[in-house]
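Onboarding guide, step 5: your first structure request.
Type a short instruction followed by the sequence, for example:

Predict the 3D structure of this protein.
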Amino acid sequence: MWFWCVCWVNQMKKSIQKIALLRGVNISGRNRVPMKELCLIMQNIGLNNAKSYLNSGNLLFDSRGDTDFEEKLISKAILSTFGVNTPVLIFSQQRIHRIFKENPYNTTTHPPSLIHTVFVKDESRLKHLKPNIKTEDLYHIGSKAIYIFTPRGYHKTKINNLFWEKQLNTPTTARNLNTVAKLIQMTHD
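The system replies with structure tokens like these:
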């Protein structure tokens, strides 16, 4: 009953396009979440025009709802349907675009596939972040995300999601610059 009430109230608001980033799904055969199936489930729970990009937990959808509520709703749907417990971070199209523009690395000198954006659930925690680590990778702490350049590739870096989650005590998920650019492009299609 409560779900239908929330959906009815949300129909009064204007729909906006959002991007959901799932943490750690479909990697090396672990935490398997079939994205086509998830898109159908999202439609059924009131998140319209759901579509995915790649098989690594990138979703676009239209919604009128509260982001925190939707993160929990998608996370619970994934757990109950696929048995995978994963954080879901949702961003509006405008917020993803601002995060993308804040990237400090020049793509002519740094290949976009080696530049990663670490998205953070609670951005307020970035203000006080002072990591103490020696690494050959470069990182920049922005106002809304963390940007890293990994010359040997993200899979070999010490400053991965686990590192940032321990530093910040909040969920994070990373995407390379090419993926972020494609997600932004898809919001305009």
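Each response can be followed by summary notes, for example: Residues 1-5 have pLDDT under 50 and may be disordered.
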